[in-house]
Amino acid sequence: MRLNEFVEPAEDKALAASIIAVTNHLKELVDNGDIDPDNYTVDELLALFQSQDIVLNTEDLYTMLDQPLLSSVISNIQGDKIVFKGDETVTINPGQEKEPDSQKVVANMANSAMKSRPDLPGGISIS
């Protein structure tokens, strides 16, 4: 039994059900490692949809990226490569690294404690 047998026979609903099924299948393929996320192309994605009788072009694919279902699996399209969620490259410049928030909070607390007890050397007291 196919997924689209559970929806009304209206063609657009059947197509929507098919797109959901293919998107879920794509997510499974990525999660299982059956797809190399670093080398998956737009043509391969379009062929996956076409294998399920969903004919899309590149413009349709870009439009679908704005929809929550496909955007939950695919982050972006760069050139002819698909960038999957979780595989985005993150660039950190060494001079612009930020302190984690917890370190800032501790540093602020230490400075505040030292200012409130200026008579003690280093602001530290042992009772």
Rg over alpha carbons: 26 Å
The major sheet is characterized as: 2 strands, antiparallel
How many angstroms does the end-to-end distance come to? 76 Å
Class based on secondary structure composition and strand pairing: mainly alpha
Helix segment tally: 5
What pattern of helices and strands is seen along the backbone? HHHHEEH
Report strand order across the widest sheet. Answer: 1-2
Shape: elongated
Rounded mean pLDDT score = 74
**How many beta-strand segments?**
2
> How much of the residues is beta strand, in percent?
5-15%
Summarize this structure briefly.
The chain is mainly alpha-helical. The chain contains five helices and two strands.
Please provide a written account of the structure.
By secondary structure, this protein is mostly helical. The protein has a domain of 82 residues. Helices cover 46% and strands 7% of the residues. It has 5 helices and 2 strands, in the order ααααββα. A two-stranded antiparallel ribbon has the order 1-2. The longest helix is centred in the N-terminal third of the chain and has 22 residues. The protein is elongated, with a radius of gyration of 26 Å.
What's the topology here?
Layout: H1 11-32, H2 42-50, H3 58-65, H4 68-71, E1 74-78, E2 81-84, H5 101-116
Give structural attributes.
127 residues, 5 helices, mainly alpha, two-stranded antiparallel sheet
